[in-house]
């Protein structure tokens, strides 16, 4: 898991600095104080420009959520009857009253904003800091991240005109702080590479105790090596912070570890926000190569697309997350699975921004897309966080409309990887599909860690896979990496292969996974009952029978999942 950096981009607009008439302002969002790890450097220069995004209130998200659960719950008569693009857009498009109110206010302040989403719920514009302070009763200042020196112009609170309440949901970036701590997974090289093609998945090669390859995953989780057949079944891998997927390295990886398929098997490229994918060996990214090699190399025959997001970010601190999801929502046939190995600590993000992004994942889920994120690599300390007095949940793992993937290690039996981030959201409540699982764990936990976590919050991760000592090829060299970055693409491959079988049988793809995983899918998972995820000067949460905030419900078994989905 890699935490994101705070960079963003919006289109520039000429604007006049006319003085708006006085109006009643209402506090909209605020922070209790400066986030840990940041220091106030001073006031931002009045003439410095700041690029802002506005999110309008969506018209009928409650109905979208109801429909999402209806099409995602196996016991429902509408299970698998996913919504169309038009049906989703109709439910989330802001009302005309909201559009008119916000645009009237913008015009009143001589601001020309650009609509940047298909449904018109996102607008962007640029103004000087002085005008931003005036518009939102804010105090935009310069904050410095103590460890990295990264600077960000933010405010600890902002207000909006009273007449925009119920119409304007979010101004960004305001109280959301960047999370610049993240680094790609550590690559240890070189090591001796050994091909491991199995004749029987009933036998796990002894070498898998040292390093993990596609053959190891096939053996541990009964993943088939037979090629997928359905061209409509696409798998998307997202890439950020100049992490590039190298085709020559993929060829070498397949030559060594998947000798049963063509070494020329590759992926397609999609770019966003000025993204690219240069192919020089010196620019090969550890994270990007890991994600691509363990999707192309495990999801045999599934068409894989690498979405490379550049640095012209529209949404600031979340490294293009909103731009990726809005781009996919605008596609008529988005990929059926998307895996992402990036994120950041929930406490650095405003609640409204977290809600907006989470709701976007609900929209994709309603259309039949499985959204997977690595849970993080800092145990209960969050996304590689250095210190904490209370446990730090990661985002977007706390979002109830996506699937968070933790990490395990070893086999016979598997145990929790100690870095596997997990816990309970402070922003999102326990969803209905998870109530029984979470309450059972908290009851078994007793007084352990009392007061350090939100016992009423959405628990994560939901599921786990292997995440230690994965062999990858980077810049022509073979080495190993570890992290939940290994786990999410592994699960994405398994879900994509299940989708291939479902589509071939004339059925719908799995879509939003959690209602299935917490009901009929639970019996198809290997329960992990040992290990923990220490952090914040504690032993963290222990893995226990049933769901736990280290490995979720457990690890997948492809054959059992095949039966669970009715094949």
From TrEMBL:
Enzyme Commission number, as recorded: 3.4.14.10
CDD domains: Peptidases_S53, Pro-peptidase_S53
Reaction catalysis annotation: Release of an N-terminal tripeptide from a polypeptide
Cofactor(s) essential for the protein: Ca(2+)
Domain of life: Eukaryota
Positions bound to Ca(2+): 527-528, 546, 548
Signal peptide span: 1-18
Keywords of the record: Calcium, Glycoprotein, Hydrolase, Metal-binding, Protease, Secreted, Serine protease, Signal, Virulence, Zymogen
Name assigned to this protein: tripeptidyl-peptidase II
Start and end residues of each Peptidase S53 domain: 211-567
